[in-house]
Amino acid sequence: MTLTECYTLLEGNYDDVVARLNSENLVKKFVYKFLEDSSYETLINSLEAGDYKEAFRAAHTIKGICQNLSFTKLFKSSNNLTEALRTEEKCDVTELLNQVKCDYEQTYSAIKALKEEDV
Amino acid sequence: MVFINNSKKSNKILIVDDSEMNRAILSEMLDNEYEIIEAADGGQAIAILQKSSVEISLVLLDIVMPVMDGFEVLAIMNKKRWIQDIPVIMISAETAPSYIDRAYDLGVTDFISRPFDSLVVRRRVVNTIMLYSKQKKLAGLVADQIYEKEKNNSLMINILSHIVEFRNGESGLHILHVQTFTDILLKCLVKKTDKYNLSASDISLISNASALHDIGKISIPEEILNKPGRLTSEEFEVMKTHSLVGASMLDELPFYKDEPLVKVAYEICRWHHERYDGRGYPDGLKGDEIPISAQIVALADVYDALTSERVYKKAFPHETAMNMILNGECGTFNPLLLDCLKDSAENIITELKENSISNHNEKEMKNIANELLRHDELSASERTLRQLEQEQIKYEFFTNVSDEIWFEFTSDPPMLTLSDLGSKKLGLNKVTINPYQNNQINSMFDISTLQGFVNTFQNTTFENPIVNFNFRVLIDGKYKYCKAIGRSMWTSDNSPEYIGAIGKITDITDENV
Question: B interface toward A at CB cutoff 8 Å?
Answer without folding.
Answer: 18-22, 24-25, 28-29, 64-66, 92-93, 114-119
